[in-house]
Amino acid sequence: WPLTGALSALLLTSGVVMWLHFKTTTLLMIGLLANTLTMYQWWRDIIREGTFQGHHTPVVQKGLRYGMILFIVSEVFFFVGFFWAFYHSSLAPTPELGGCWPPIGITPLNPLEVPLLNTSVLLASGVSITWAHHSLMEGARSHTSQALLITIILGVYFTVLQTFEYMETSFTIADGVYGSTFFMATGFHGLHVMIGTTFLAVCLIRHTLYHFTS
Questions:
Q1: Which residues does the UniProt record annotate as the domain Heme-copper oxidase subunit III family profile (predicted)?
Q2: Among 155, 151, 148, which Cα is nearest to 203's?
Q3: Residues 43, 151, 193, CA angle at the centre, nearest 5°?
Q4: What global pTM score does this model have?
Q5: Which of 31, 156, 181, 194 could form a cystine bridge with 86, CB 3.0-4.6 A?
Q6: Mean pLDDT of all residues in the chain?
Q7: Does any domain span residue 214?
Q8: Residues 142 and 197 occupy one common structural domain
Q9: Which CATH number does the domain housing residue 33 bear?
């Protein structure tokens, strides 16, 4: 599954490029289908191995934890690159940018409107998922279900808000360093939120099926 996952991700990203440049969605749909099938079948095998066959021994669990830690570290550096590009350009604007920030012709979003609301939604989802985790550890099934459902709703709400935010922007990803850093950073962050929401939905389904009980 790692191989098919990597290939489907390649097809998906290549399909996005084809869609943006040549207005064709064939490769994008193939990549999306392959990625969805890989996710479904990979999750199915993990559930079988860990829940029903008992293959997730303490050694395997330790490896999974180390893998998650390394993944989080790589994600931190991934976003550090975007922030570095933003601060490098904003703290010392070059003459090509007009010597000012934001660059001439760019009207930025008001940070006290939708961005502030989205930040509040993210913080609230952090509280609710922590509630779900502690409830699960204490065996409070109903509280776990409620907290997971609230977190999923907040994740969907965040995605909808960001979509409307993109529709309201007066600039595009092609508008110099400001547009590229804004849409790359917020776009990848939104993608992470959508993937995380999907993962939590699977966790909620598994919790409903008593997969996390002893």
A1: 1-214
A2: 148
A3: 65
A4: 0.84
A5: 181
A6: 91
A7: no
A8: yes
A9: 1.10.287.70
Provide the token pair at 15. Answer: 């399909």
> What digits encode the pLDDT tens for the residues 125-140?
999 999 999 999 998 9
CATH label of the domain that carries residue 168:
1.20.120.80
| Residue 103, phi then psi, degrees to nearest 5 | -60, 160
> From CA 53, how far away is CA 79, in angstroms rounded?
38
Cα–Cα separations (whole angstroms), residue 174 to 4, 178, 179: 32, 9, 6
Six-digit token pair at 56?
């997730």
**What residues have CB less than 8 Å from 68, skipping those under 6 apart?**
none
Q: For residue 135, what are its two tokens?
A: 């409830």
Lookup: tokens for 64: 């999974």
97 and 191 belong to one structural domain? yes
17, amino acid identity: V
Q: How many residues in total does the chain contain?
A: 214
Does residue 197 have a pLDDT over 90? yes
C-alpha to C-alpha distance for 73 and 156, rounded to whole angstroms: 25
